[in-house]
Amino acid sequence: RVYKGLPQGAVLSPILYALYTNQITKNMDERVQIVQFADDIAIYVQGGDRFENKINLEVAVHRVAKNLAVLNLNLAPQKTKLVEFSRSGYCDNNLYINVKKCRVYNDRGARFLGIWLDNKLRFEKHVSDIRGRVNKANNIMKYISGISKGVEVNTALMLYKSMVRSVLDYGLYIYSPNIKSLQLNLERTQFLGIRTALGYRNSTPNNVIIAESKVVLLRERALTLAKNFCSKIYKYGESSIRISLDNLKNKEMWAKYRNPLYNKSVLCEAWECVRRYSDRLGCSKESFEIWNMDYSMITNRIDID
């Protein structure tokens, strides 16, 4: 029985929590942006003045804490992280913000929604974390393959996709690195899982492994997943997300213009591709067509042209 709060894992818990905390971002400054998923909240500001950024961020955090207190909810300073993102990756250890009379000092990275965000957005720590999680799944596959003469090929690939590739796929088009060394490190993670699943030796060439397993490279898979996401956002997503993706595309185009050797992100490439073939997707809509139909039509009969 639950006397206070919401039951963990219940179907209605996310919706009820979203309705209950709908006003926690009320009266926020326009210079402050907020990203929220359930009880995970990220507050960020952009600007060239570090002191002004700190003040704006501190005021926003205090306002969120005040709005939460009205709902009898508390903000946990011990779970709060402060990260200053920059191209250089410089971490000022003396920088801090006050959260409920506690000092939260600047850190080199933070984990948000399962993805490690380092202060240079190179995702080195996240790739290393992925490598460790894949090694654990790989050991389980080794045990399963070793209890008999081996596992049938299709079964082995199914195990690989469910235990190894599922770990790699989560947020792949977000953290997919542009640096060659990190790309190779990530690809080797996939090669390790395929070698275990199919019983190949370490000396087997990578192109043979990819051809025999019929599995694409992670960079190509990340681009495919990103195109699926961007297509859904272009057709049925919120206009604010489309504007954010347009801003990302424009900024990376300018970065490419200033530095021809600059490698665009996977998400930017996918959004450019979706924009290029937008006539095939049709005009953007605010919701799926099925939500605009009558209940009787959905449950009994759907009219077809």
TrEMBL record:
GO BP terms: DNA biosynthetic process
Gene3D superfamilies recorded: 3.30.70.270
InterPro entries: DNA/RNA_pol_sf, Rev_trsase/Diguanyl_cyclase, RT_dom
Pfam families in the cross-refs: RVT_1
Signal peptide range: none
Domain Reverse transcriptase intervals: 1-117
Name of protein: Reverse transcriptase domain-containing protein
